[in-house]
Amino acid sequence: MSDILLSLKGVKTYYGKIVALRGIDLDVHRGEIVTVIGANGAGKSTTMMTICGVTRAREGQIIYDGENITTLPTHQIVKKAIAQSPEGRRIFGRMTVLENLQMGAAVIDYAHFEEDLRMVYDLFPILEKRQSQRGGTLSGGEQQMLAIGRALMARPKLLMLDEPSLGLAPLVVKQIFEVVKELNEKQGLTVFLVEQNAYHALRLAHRGYVMINGQITMSGGGKELLSNPEVQAAYLEGGRH
């Protein structure tokens, strides 16, 4: 079995005639936290959507767990134990917290529902207190916790987080990143994270990639990129929340 869980090779994605991803290469090893950082519009979310099949790669290959998933439909990709917490959270606002978590478990037929629900409630105790509350009435931070919890209910091999810190208070961001670190360290969960908050992302990640205009311009260890003068100047000035 390969050590690489996810690999993008020369992936190009277009929106009409506009090139969104310009032939990107990146790898995510099993048990690793890997982040892609970059400014708004750099192509980070497009990368995630392309992996999930929401946006199609027109060139290149996406290999997941040894299988080429480049042309698979999204519903088949999800069944391969890839779970995403999307940008903007996108929880089901009219459903309760518990119903949202049930939706996450639906991918794997509720086989371990009670056990997984307990895990999510232990990670995010506020969700247990709010379990009968509608998702749309939660705070932004609670909605983000619910989005991650819903993804975890699908028992993913690969957890993909799209801008989890967006619009959240610094204390909530710190709490969410600590949970991600715990999931990785205690459960060996592989995490692929795209994030504008470079400081938090690079402190958390084993390795990182810098994306500018749909291209990977730099890569390295998280701490290595954190101390890189170019990265500091572009992404970390005033960004240490």
TrEMBL record:
<protein>
    <submittedName>
        <fullName>Branched-chain amino acid transport system ATP-binding protein</fullName>
    </submittedName>
</protein>
<dbReference type="Pfam" id="PF00005">
    <property type="entry name" value="ABC_tran"/>
</dbReference>
<feature type="domain" description="ABC transporter">
    <location>
        <begin position="6"/>
        <end position="238"/>
    </location>
</feature>
<keyword id="KW-0547">Nucleotide-binding</keyword>
<dbReference type="InterPro" id="IPR052156">
    <property type="entry name" value="BCAA_Transport_ATP-bd_LivF"/>
</dbReference>
<dbReference type="InterPro" id="IPR003593">
    <property type="entry name" value="AAA+_ATPase"/>
</dbReference>
<dbReference type="InterPro" id="IPR030660">
    <property type="entry name" value="ABC_branched_ATPase_LivF/BraG"/>
</dbReference>
<dbReference type="InterPro" id="IPR027417">
    <property type="entry name" value="P-loop_NTPase"/>
</dbReference>
<keyword id="KW-0813">Transport</keyword>
<dbReference type="GO" id="GO:0016887">
    <property type="term" value="F:ATP hydrolysis activity"/>
</dbReference>
<comment type="similarity">
    <text>Belongs to the ABC transporter superfamily.</text>
</comment>
<dbReference type="GO" id="GO:0015658">
    <property type="term" value="F:branched-chain amino acid transmembrane transporter activity"/>
</dbReference>
<dbReference type="GO" id="GO:0005524">
    <property type="term" value="F:ATP binding"/>
</dbReference>
<dbReference type="GO" id="GO:0015807">
    <property type="term" value="P:L-amino acid transport"/>
</dbReference>
<dbReference type="InterPro" id="IPR003439">
    <property type="entry name" value="ABC_transporter-like_ATP-bd"/>
</dbReference>
<keyword id="KW-0067">ATP-binding</keyword>
<keyword id="KW-0029">Amino-acid transport</keyword>
<dbReference type="InterPro" id="IPR017871">
    <property type="entry name" value="ABC_transporter-like_CS"/>
</dbReference>
